[in-house]
């Protein structure tokens, strides 16, 4: 059962958090709208689409992504005011231990983290799907392209598809090859100038193709100008925008990663990062809460202003480290799990040190 002190701090905590959330999201929407006014004037989306399909889901995405930051700033603001009015000193002098003082903060952080976890794994993928679909129609101008060359995919056991390059705009593989292997022995090979995907029929149209069946008594050759063939291969298997991972539910994301790895595509780092971030970011709420209380509970000259300056500096360093480790995982081979969790581990150690040195 919550006591008067717990209710008082929890009310201040959650009230400040949601006030800052609404305020900052309003500012973010205004800035984003001013930036996209030209795009909206060019593509003419309806007001309903802009509001419901884009900005509602825009707010859900960014409010959830930066919930840890909003938690940190909320804790800094109201705890700093408590310290400035000597309320923290009065609580500690009245026999309330510092760990006991942290109890309502922990409850508030748990509520925010639990809400963020539910949104990340269940709600946000569908919100991102609608937001990204809106951007594809009304905002994006640059066509998506796959920069990788010499693409190999094991589309079925022993069936290897190859393409020198892939055009996402034309849905076409150039310098296409298809090999069938049985017990480590090549039994057939098909080459074509290009293979174009027919999204209506779900088939690949081969142009200038040459097929060779390899047997003990010699090879059987056949060729032609055009040929339609069914393959267990989809354009999405060859490449898609990394942002689409945000529109997949966690089970769908796990399946997609497993499929890409089974097909021999080793470039799944961004998808693994997205998967781990869905849990790591909400749990960072506890770390930011601990650091925020440890910093703001000290009564110092400069008061709230000094606490905010120090807090903003710590937050900027955190996001710099997150960006650095993400780039390292994408381009330098750092394990995606470590890339996501190292910033949390480092800041957890900082939070423990601040907690141990905080006034008791």
Description:
- 61% of the residues lie in helices and 18% in strands.
- Strands 1-2-3-4-5-6 form a six-stranded antiparallel sheet.
- The chain is built from ten helices and six strands; from the N terminus they run H-H-H-H-H-E-E-E-E-E-E-H-H-H-H-H.
- A hairpin with a 2-residue loop joins strand 1 and strand 2.
- Helix 3 packs antiparallel against helix 5 and helix 3 runs antiparallel to helix 9.
- The longest helix is centred in the first third of the chain and has 41 residues.
- It has 360 residues and is an alpha+beta fold.
- The chain folds into two domains: 226 residues, no CATH class; 84 residues, no CATH class.
Secondary structure elements and pairings:
Layout: H1 4-43, H2 47-65, H3 67-84, H4 87-93, H5 98-138, E1 151-156, E2 159-167, E3 172-182, E4 185-198, E5 203-215, E6 218-229, H6 235-238, H7 250-262, H8 269-296, H9 303-331, H10 336-357
Antiparallel strand pairs: 1-2, 2-3, 3-4, 4-5, 5-6
Number of domains: 2
Name the poorly predicted regions: none
What is the structural class?
A: alpha+beta
Number of helical regions: 10
Largest sheet: 6 strands, antiparallel
Overall average pLDDT = 84
Strand order of the largest sheet: 1-2-3-4-5-6
The percentage helix is 55-70%
Q: Can you tell me the overall shape?
A: elongated
Q: How many β-strand stretches? A: 6
Order of helices and strands: HHHHHEEEEEEHHHHH
Radius of gyration equals 27 Å
Bin the strand percentage: 15-25%
What's the end-to-end separation, in Å? 24 Å
């Amino acid at each position: 059962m919550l006591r008067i002190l717990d209710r008082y701090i929890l009310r201040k905590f959650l009230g400040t958090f949601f006030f800052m959330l609404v305020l900052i999201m309003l500012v973010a929407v205004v800035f984003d709208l001013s930036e996209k006014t030209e795009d909206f004037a060019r593509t003419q989306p309806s007001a309903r689409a802009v509001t419901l399909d884009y900005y509602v889901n825009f707010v859900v995405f960014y409010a959830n992504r930066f919930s840890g930051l909003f938690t940190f700033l909320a804790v800094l603001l109201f705890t700093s005011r408590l310290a400035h009015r000597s309320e923290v000193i009065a609580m500690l002098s009245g026999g309330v231990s510092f760990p006991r003082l942290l109890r309502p903060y922990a409850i508030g952080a748990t509520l925010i983290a639990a809400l963020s976890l539910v949104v990340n794994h269940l709600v946000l993928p569908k919100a991102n799907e609608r937001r990204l679909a809106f951007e594809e129609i009304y905002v994006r101008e640059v066509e998506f392209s796959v920069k990788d060359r010499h693409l190999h995919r094991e589309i079925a056991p022993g069936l290897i598809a190859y393409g020198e390059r892939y055009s996402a705009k034309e849905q076409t593989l150039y310098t296409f090859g298809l090999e069938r292997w049985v017990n480590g022995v090549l039994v057939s090979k098909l080459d074509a100038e290009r293979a174009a995907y027919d999204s209506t029929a779900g088939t690949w149209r081969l142009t200038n193709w040459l097929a060779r069946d390899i047997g003990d008594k010699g090879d059987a050759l056949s060729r032609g100008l055009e040929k339609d063939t069914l393959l267990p291969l989809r354009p999405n298997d060859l490449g898609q925008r990394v942002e689409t991972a945000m529109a997949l539910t966690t089970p769908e994301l796990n399946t997609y990663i497993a499929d890409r790895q089974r097909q021999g595509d080793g470039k799944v780092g961004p998808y693994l990062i997205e998967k781990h971030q869905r849990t790591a970011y909400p749990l960072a709420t506890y770390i930011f809460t601990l650091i925020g209380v440890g910093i703001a509970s000290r009564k110092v000259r400069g008061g709230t202003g000094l606490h905010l300056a120090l807090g903003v500096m710590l937050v900027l360093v955190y996001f710099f480290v997150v960006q650095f480790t993400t780039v390292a995982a994408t381009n330098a081979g750092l394990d995606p799990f470590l890339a996501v969790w190292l910033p949390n581990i480092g800041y957890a150690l900082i939070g423990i040190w601040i907690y141990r040195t905080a006034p008791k």
